[in-house]
Specification:
Blueprint (H helix, E strand, L loop, with lengths): L6 H16 L1 E2 L4 H12 L7 E6 L3 E6 L8 E6 L6 H5 L4 H6 L6 H15 L6 H4 L14 H4 L4 H27 L8 H4 L2 H14 L1 E2 L15 E2 L8 E2 L5 E6 L4 E6 L10 E2 L6 H8 L11 E2 L2 H5 L9 H10 L7 E3 L2 E2 L1 H10 L9 H5 L6 H35 L4 H24 L1
Parallel strand pairs: 7-10
Antiparallel strand pairs: 1-2, 2-3, 4-9, 5-6, 8-9, 11-12, 12-13
Helix pairs in contact: 5-10, 14-16, 16-17
Organism: Psilopogon haemacephalus
GO molecular function, one term: protein-lysine N-methyltransferase activity
Pfam families: Rubis-subs-bind, SET
Length: 431
């Protein structure tokens, strides 16, 4: 006969479930033990946060005590931060100082990360490098098949990102070659494109903003990066407010929360009020039910429903361009944005109304006909974008079946389209 689980058995079961819901503590894992020891040697002690695996967000930090608004989440000493100062005091420093034209602070940091990763066991930064992601999910790392399924405005930005990283690599090859005396192996093998792509993603997704004074050995790009071991395990939530700043008195980078957080829950910070397209582009993830999310309308779609024979079409377009009304036209959780409606009102002006274009930009009502046509076209664009999202979701589910290796990347794009679809359906109801 099966013995019934007594009260303690039920309690234990509940506790296990709660701990799983809260997150699975990972601080016993070797890489985290070594990271904490390494940080302790550099003056960082923290008994409050634990690395953990969470169901929704993956790896993050869990609090061991309840946090109140105004509490300090983390205070990371300057010695733990990886900055261009760190790079210049390494063996790379003299090569950077000599190199003309000067390299950018970004390339200096990328070079350091690649060199330290290559050094393996010999690297002083090994405990940090061991907990960094091996691969990233930023658009620059995605396969062409996956990129082609992104919404059009993001697809364009993803291609620009890819081109930019590629150009960064090509323009740095000569500098990488100058480092040959430091390595037994050929620098072309060490500083290859995929190594740079990994280093660039590490910096792009993980650095904190920290302004450094301009040094002559660097190009004029702002030197505002710092990698912050352990602190960079904190995940993003759009609904959280924090104050993050380098404290000159304590010489530490500090994050203070403006929200409460229960014991054993994941501690979040906010990377900024970003929509999902920006989050995917810059950080390689999507936040569900993101209040900042929106669906962008490209100028091609904007013009789809206007007669190409409209004699004033070009004049209308140049007015929109001059007044910056062709960018950032969106549908949000509360329907079409004022900017989108204004652009469509201007394009809907009849020949006899055209002289009133300034009033449109000020938000005036021109005529009942203009209002009606604008509403009609806004709804058509909304339905067109709904269909586009549905088609993309169909293609994604098909590709997921065919290409097992792309499942993780496809799931990201799928999440983005699902969120877009929710926003557009909400807008359609409002319209």
């Amino acid at each position: 006969m099966k013995k019934s689980r007594g009260r303690t058995g039920r309690k234990r079961g509940r506790k296990r479930l709660q701990s799983f819901m809260a997150g699975a503590n990972c601080s016993h894992k070797l890489e985290y033990i070594q990271l904490k020891k390494w940080l302790k040697d550099r003056g960082f002690e923290d008994s409050n946060l634990r690395p953990a695996e969470f169901l929704e967000t993956g790896r993050g930090l869990m609090t061991m005590k309840a946090l109140q608004a105004g509490d300090l989440i983390i205070s990371l000493p300057e010695k733990c931060l990886l900055t261009t100062g760190t790079v210049l005091s390494s063996c790379l420093g003299e090569y950077i100082m000599k190199w003309k034209p000067p390299v950018s602070p970004l390339i200096a940091l990328c070079t350091f990360l690649i060199a330290e990763k290559y050094a393996g066991e010999e690297s002083q930064w090994k405990p940090y490098l061991d907990v960094l992601p091996k691969v990233y999910t930023c658009p620059v790392c995605l396969e062409h098949d996956v990129v082609s399924l992104l919404p059009e405005p993001l697809r364009k930005k993803a291609q620009e990102q890819r081109t930019m990283v590629h150009e960064l690599y090509m323009s740095s090859k000569a500098f990488f070659s100058s480092l040959q005396p430091l390595f037994a192996e050929n620098t072309e093998t060490i500083f290859n494109y995929s190594a740079l792509e990994w280093a660039w993603c590490t910096i792009n997704t993980r650095t904190i903003y920290m302004k450094h004074s301009q040094r002559e050995c660097f190009s004029l790009e702002p030197d505002v990066y710092a990698l912050a071991p352990y602190l960079d395990l904190l995940n993003h939530s759009p609904n959280i407010q924090v104050k993050a700043v380098f404290n000159d008195q304590t010489r530490s980078y500090e994050i203070q929360t403006n929200s409460q957080c229960k014991k054993y829950k994941e501690v979040f910070i906010c990377y900024g009020p970003y929509d999902n397209q920006r989050l995917l582009l810059e950080y390689g993830f999507v936040a569900m039910d993101n209040p900042h999310s929106c669906v962008y309308v490209s100028s091609d779609i904007l013009l789809k429903y206007f007669p190409p024979l409209d004699k004033q079409r070009n004049a209308k377009l140049s007015i929109l361009k001059d007044h910056d009304f062709l960018e950032n036209l969106t549908f949000g959780w509360d329907g079409p944005s004022w900017r989108l409606v204004t652009a469509l009102k201007l394009l809907s002006l009849g020949a006899d109304e055209f002289t009133c274009w300034r009033r449109v930009l000020l938000g005036d009502v021109i005529s009942a006909r203009n209002e009606h046509q604008t509403l009609n076209i806004t709804a058509k664009i909304c339905h067109y974008l709904i269909k586009e999202s549905q088609d993309a979701l169909l293609q994604i589910s098909q590709l997921k079946r065919e290409k097992e290796n792309l499942r993780e990347h496809l799931a990201l794009v799928e999440a983005l389209h699902l969120e877009n679809l929710k926003i557009l359906q909400k807008s359609a109801e409002i319209l």
